[in-house]
Amino acid sequence: MSKGEEEVKLLGAWPSPFVLRARIALNMKSVRYEFLQETFGSKSQLLLQSNPVHKKIPVLIHGDKPVCESLIIVEYIDQVWSSPPSILPSHPYDRAVARFWAAYLDEKWFPAMKSVQGAKGEEERKALMQQLEEGLALMESAYHSVSKGKPFFGGDRVGYLDIAFGCYLGWLRVIESFSGLKLLDHAKTPGLAQWAQAFCAHDAVKPVMPETDKLIEFAKVLMAKAPPK
Prior knowledge:
Helix content is 54%, strand content 7%. It folds into 2 domains: 3-80, 3-Layer(aba) Sandwich (Glutaredoxin), CATH 3.40.30; 92-224, Up-down Bundle (Glutathione S-transferase Yfyf (Class Pi), Chain A, domain 2), CATH 1.20.1050.10. With 229 residues, the protein is of the alpha+beta class. The chain has helices spanning 17-28, 45-50, 70-80, 92-115, 121-147, 160-166, 169-179, 190-201, 212-225; strands at 8-12, 34-37, 59-62, 65-68.
């Protein structure tokens, strides 16, 4: 049995944007896998054994070897199942740029998005929403630069940065629903608005992108369980 034919399992949960990254990458490569859902609020023994350092999803288990951290998993999938379509850009500079923006999204932009619903007071909420909008303006500029006029950050096809950013689109819609503000629109971010439509309609994305209504209900449950501030 070749390395790519070994059994593949993915530990995750449907609302997680990070798990979504792995699912999209697996779909792009037409990899058959078993999706093992973790229960919110508890961690399975398999998860604790597979990711003893962070104890977080997603975890890709290939054969008997666990791979952790969503973007590392995406790169691993691209390298192991190396037949087209490739996910990472072929040129080293393009790969570096894609990784830079993916790191920016995870380290700077997503924390602001995650904090909006738990903001203490209107001023903090407005400041976080402004951070989100400023980040989207940066990503609009990056989209035009990286895509070179093509539909996706990856050019003619979904690539690494598309997956890194696109996984947050469902939760961005949740923020829009709760706030009553349109963050991704054709007036302020025309490139991203068009990109988001194309990304969500992609064959590798559409079957696994969570429905906004389901995410909204899940968010309400999370907010109800959160300790009062």
